[in-house]
Known about the structure:
The chain has helices spanning 13-25, 30-39, 46-67, 112-123, 138-146, 166-181, 188-204, 214-233; strands spanning 74-84, 87-96, 101-107, 131-134, 154-157. By secondary structure, it is α/β, with parallel strands linked by helices.
Amino acid sequence: MTDQKLPGYRFPxxxxxxxxxxxxxxxxxxxxxxxxxxxxxxxxxxxxxxxxCINFSDEFAQNLRHREPRRGxxxxxxxxxxxICGVAHWLWRxxxxxxxxxxxxxxxxxxxSATTSFFQRLLGEYHVPETVCTDKLASYxxxxxxxxxxxxxxHQQVISSARxxxxxxxxxxxxRRQERAQLGFRQVRRTQGFLDLHARITNxxxxxxxxxxxxxxxxxxxxxxxxxxxxxxxxx
Length: 236
């Protein structure tokens, strides 16, 4: 990875990119990342790591998003309750039939307007799916009826615990794990930025923790790490 330094930063991109990757890849605190870097002879403060995560997360997330194939004809949508500074929010999530996260969107409400906004975000990035699978929340059906683009979509509504909706329920678990590691989320804008990059890194490493032969898993891991290094270099 490049050792180029950006103006205003003391450490090279290789170090900053690795710190951001560690923080989003695993359920670590800034202090945990600080100690892992210290073990490698890199002395950096927790505040510096926090600053890197804030300043580079959006650009890294966009670079990863552009590298992802526009695949999948089936969307699974769901929303999870998130408290930020004592205020209730809803994190909307969409994954395709392969479990790949398409988008995450943090909103204050859980109504038709919020659902429509989320669909519009998805349609701005991806082709219209053949099937949309949701839970029984009435806002999904209302939003689909409001959007002419989705007129011919097969809308399947199931209970949240149904097996066909298990892909998105599993995706929620990773967010809960990070939420606990951070002792809760504190600011809406930074939470959105964090979850955007967290979703993209999860997609990048999607095959490295599945039940596949060790050689295949290591191959996918090497490929993912090469892609991450390329994404970091794009910032230069």
